[in-house]
Design a protein that fits this description.
By secondary structure, the protein is mainly α. It has nine helices and no strands.
Length: about 200
């Protein structure tokens, strides 16, 4: 609703949207600084867990950056980002519901599918190597944060404490690293037929 937004705010958002559409890194940082609290709140309300909400936060800004050309300059970013965050959070919950929760020890060991796992396909092997190469190509500080976050499962606050840096620095490095990985690995997403 433009009539409730001061003219200077509308103009700031218009300039920010145009910078974002040009792919300027400073625009992504500004968007994150202005709206990360809102996005985190929406995500936390849906997923109910800070670690998952932080993951949704990162995914939301990646999606916003990827889809910046669909955002109408001059509109309010808040509802757009809140919608992306809500959808991303719901997706996280759906994926978790699909995961089997039955402990391995409870499986019938005589069942033909008990512990059978097909070997990876050539495409899966290629994808794994592409991901590894993309991670290795990151700057050292970004690579360390990605490893701690995704391999060790640490939260942003745990990483900040471990590395002795501000949590804001962890978040910005994580966001930058994920954006670079999304650029380098976009072909994998296109190959799996996922329209997002």
């Amino acid at each position: 609703m433009h009539e409730f937004r001061p003219a200077h705010v509308v103009e700031q958002d218009r300039e920010l949207a145009e910078s974002l559409q040009r792919g300027e890194e400073s625009a992504v940082r500004t968007l994150y600084e202005r709206y990360s609290a809102l996005v985190f709140t929406v995500a936390l309300r849906v997923v109910g867990d800070r670690q998952r909400a932080e993951d949704v936060l990162q995914h939301t800004f990646l999606q916003a950056w990827r889809n910046a050309d669909h955002f109408e300059a001059g509109r309010d970013f808040a509802p757009w980002l809140a919608t992306i965050a809500r959808r991303s959070a719901i997706d996280v919950l759906r994926v978790e519901r699909r995961r089997p929760s039955e402990p391995i020890g409870d499986r019938d060991q005589d069942a033909p599918d008990a512990l059978v796992q097909l070997p990876p396909s050539a495409e899966q092997i290629e994808a794994v190597w592409a991901v590894r190469a993309a991670i290795e190509s990151l700057d050292d500080d970004e690579r360390e944060i990605v490893r701690l976050q995704h391999v060790d499962g640490w939260s942003h606050s745990q990483i900040a404490e471990r590395l002795g840096i501000a949590i804001g620095t962890v978040k910005s490095r994580s966001f930058r690293a994920h954006r670079r990985l999304a650029n380098r690995l976009g072909h994998l997403r296109a190959d799996d037929g996922d329209p997002t």
